[in-house]
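Hi L., both proteins are below.
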Amino acid sequence: MEFNKIIEKKSAEAWEIYIPNLSVDCVVFGFHDTTLKVLVTRLKDKDLWALPGGYVLKTENLKEAANRILYSRTGAENIYLQEFKVFSDLNRSGGVFDEFPDTLWNKQRFLSVAFYALVDFHQVNLVLDDISDACEWKSIEELPNFMMDHRSIFKKALTTLRKQLNHKPIGYNLLPEKFTMPELQKLYEIILAKKLNRGNFYRKMLRYDILIKLDESRKGGAHKAPDLYQFDLEKYEKALKEGLNNGW
């Protein structure tokens, strides 16, 4: 079924089940091959890409809606979600639905509550919905042509994530269960877009006391095998709630 017919059919259903004028958009970050990536979808029959998003059922709250939307796209559960901004500019649809009648659900004015999500790249199984013909990971350095205000939403999400690094830990949702300190440092450097001193980074991370050093090392390199670590989940969760000292 072509894009226009699908949208019209979904519009009739939406008026019955969703809260009017309220939507959710999600910026999903994953880390793979030393690259920070974002999950994006491409609309059918259009050269436009979008962040995963949707509407809020009359029977759920905002975070439940975000989790439902992300589960339908990724199959991942227990995702780290952080609400970071409400986007409310006039004419946010940016011409995407101009050809449709004004009664179309999607053409109404929507206030969008934006979340960013941190996920383990390897735990995600990408799923297409019926209005998209692609669902892919894109490097934050090579983003496609976004619809509406989705590029602004992405930029604000990245800025917010960078600020979080000054007072909260990250990594648990982005790295595999076992990782090396160089891998953790690389993640921080990519998010912050700057190099960090190796010795200072190691000392600071160990001083936070959220890591467990394992009696294992990463095999296969030409140099001395680096030690493996994992997060102490109890201390990690406490740091998320109470914050960390010192920034980057």
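That was the first. Here is the second:
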Amino acid sequence: MDGDRLVETFVELADTLVDDFDVIDFLHMLVDRCVELLDVHAAGLLLADQQGRLQLIATSNEQVRLLELFQLQNDEGPCLDAFAAGARVGHPDLADAGERWPRFAAAATEAGFAAVDAVPMRLRSEVIGALNLFRSQVGELDATALRTATALVDIATIGLLQHRSIHHHQVLTEQLQAALNSRVIVEQAKGLIAERLGVDMDAAFAALRGHARGHNLKLGHVARGVIAGDIDTAELLGTTTTPKPVRR
């Protein structure tokens, strides 16, 4: 195992905060480096979608891509078991794994693979996917290689969850800022409506809101339309109750 290359890989897997971070490229790099650094001949990675269903995301070659798809289609195989259990799953001799994975073991053997290990992408109680490591020779995966594979997957998992958390925070921040910006526009539109229609601010807001709901539009969109003159304030009266006049 190339120590310098391994260190370089850990650094790359930890760097998920760059502006142009690409999840797909990141995970392809993970499977490629596993094949390069460990005593395995192919690798495939499945990642859970928002509904918790595993989806094929990266493989080291086309042969494994087809095998991983076969695993998903038949709902059977080491990656699915590792994901469900949150623990490493493997078999040193796939020719003997027919009882455990009858369809998958046959397909993997036919593809030229003799042994497999699946490592979950797990951080504490959260499991987000699993990595399959295939070998063409029968036998257990070397202990050092298994520890290294687990460490690589752990770093990748932390990086992905960190990126997801930061992205989620950014989305919430952007949504909050958009809401604050819209609120300013809505207040301006309320004042404009109140002045033009001679009603109080509550009635002006009711008219604005009623028009938005009646036309299936966002409140901010209607408010901008009122301010820009695209929506005639007189039209707003038809979508709400009779407005209360302003007390002079």
